[in-house]
Amino acid sequence: MTDTVFALATPPGRGAIAVVRLSGPRTADVLAALAGRLPAPRFAALRTLRHDGARLDEALVLWFPAPASYTGEDVAELHLHGGRAVVDGVLGALSALGARPAEPGEFTRRAFENGRMDLAQAEAVADLIDAESAAQTRQALGQLGGALGAVYAGFRADLLQALSLVEAEIDFPDEEVPDNLAATAGPALDRLAADLRHALSDGDRGERVREGYRIVLIGETNAGKSALFNALVAQDAAIVTPIAGTTRDVLDAQLVIDGYAVTLSDTAGLRESADLVEAEGVRRARARAEAADLRLWVRAPGDPDGEAAAFVRPDDLTVNTKADLTPASGLAVSSVTGQGIAELHAAIAERLRRDLAGADFPAVTRARHRLRLTEALNAVVAARGALAIAPEMAGDDLRRAAAALAQVTGAIGVEDVLGEVFANFCIGK
Ligand SMILES: Nc1nc2c(ncn2[C@@H]2O[C@H](COP(=O)(O)OP(=O)(O)OP(=O)(O)O)[C@@H](O)[C@H]2O)c(=O)[nH]1
Ligand SMILES: [Mg+2]
């Protein structure tokens, strides 16, 4: 029998209210032992909580009988006064009454196992809890609402249609199915492969929203990168000196720009150096710049193009620094007077919207999704190749593709889907 588990659902420590959650088959018994009569389902009721003759708290109690609950099991919530002693007393009583503390994520895991949500929705719960920007919240809420699952359901429906054609040819070669049925799956597979490629080539939009968009400051030594970094994060975080080669380590800061989570990195000035430490700094700066989503090419008046020319990308934003000393054209900023910083913020925000805002829900919000989607695409391409010559092989490939897609949402086993497709597939007898 499943354990009945409990956990403090609000952060530990002192607060106005602390919420303790219970889930499992003994929830009603435990709740009745603690609070007396059960409240009406999904209505808050004020109850005195008692254990071993002692009053523990006056609490709001909620009762969610299975299956209409978060986990799909019997669930209760206790809204306690948020004092440490109150919470400790109640948690102790719950243990004494035979419930056990939940493992991390156990409530959501139970929700998944009881079919209350698919795997992508369970991931979305974690994302929503970690969200620090409006875009992260939007994406996580969309995924929680089933948007990602719907994208994969679409892929899977196309895939199973093709598979059913192939299976029909394999299983009923001599019956009333049109000749060369498998080959007719060709256009469907071409369409599907194109859709999968399109989903994979979205510039990591979903992952970048979730993990943060990576902006890296690069340029010559003394260009004013660290001073600009400090101006952008509005903190005296990086060391600024007139000595060329001051910054060695990469310095990261997390910020939110225009509702998007951003990781901004200050790096060592790019130059050849015999100094072992500085050379390592430059190596790291280059590596970060390679992986960046946006590079701010920081240039002081008179900086040479030399190092830049080979390294600069058309998409880099050029930022001209020290505008208080020498007026410059384009994006001109001064970390001393603050001139141009608002314009730079606006230019960054425009890039964020261009790269991250999309009309469709992204098919990939984690590396795990990308991996499975790529697997599915490879299998579909293999199936397409085998279609006309070896339908059995094509069938195997398509089943592999379906399994890969099903792993993203974990919603339905491949066999279940196949069963449904074949139940609806009119084969004539
Ligand atoms: N007047 C003026 N001086 C600036 C400005 N930005 C930076 N400086 C000065 O330029 C020098 C170099 O600035 P840093 O920010 O350390 O330059 P950096 O690009 O980080 O240099 P490295 O870390 O050596 O690669 C310092 O003396 C700063 O005070 C600015 O906007 N105006
Ligand atoms: Mg620096």
Tell me what the structure shows.
The chain contains 15 helices and eleven strands. It has 429 residues and is α/β, with parallel strands linked by helices. The protein folds into three domains: 5-113, Probable tRNA modification gtpase trme, domain 1 (Gyrase A, domain 2, 2-Layer Sandwich); 147-202 and 363-424, tRNA modification GTPase MnmE domain 2 (Four Helix Bundle (Hemerythrin (Met), subunit A)); 209-356, Rossmann fold (3-Layer(aba) Sandwich). Strands 3-4-5-2-1-6 form a six-stranded mixed β-sheet. A five-stranded mixed β-sheet has the order 8-9-7-10-11, with helices on both faces. A hairpin with a 2-residue loop joins strand 3 and strand 4 (54-64). The longest helix is centred in the middle third of the chain and has 25 residues, at 147-171. The protein is flat. The two termini are 44 Å apart. Guanosine-5'-triphosphate is lined by residues 219, 221-227, 240-242, 244-247, 268-269, 321-322, 324-325, 334-336.
Counting H and I runs of at least 4 residues, what is the number of helices? 15
Q: What is the CATH domain class of the largest domain?
A: Alpha Beta
- Which molecules are bound in this entry? guanosine-5'-triphosphate, magnesium ion
Q: Compute the separation of the termini in Å.
A: 44 Å
Largest sheet descriptor: 6 strands, mixed
- What name does CATH use for the topology of the largest domain? Rossmann fold
What integer is the average pLDDT?
A: 90
Named CATH architecture of the largest domain? 3-Layer(aba) Sandwich
Count of discrete domains: 3
Using DSSP, what is the number of strands? 11
Helix content: 40-55%
Can you identify the CATH superfamily of the largest domain? P-loop containing nucleotide triphosphate hydrolases
Structural class: alpha/beta
Task: Bin the strand percentage.
Answer: 15-25%
* Alpha-carbon Rg, integer: 29 Å
Low-confidence stretches: 420-429
Order of helices and strands: EEHEEEHEHHHHHHEHEEHEHEHHHH
Outline: flat
Biggest sheet strand line-up: 3-4-5-2-1-6
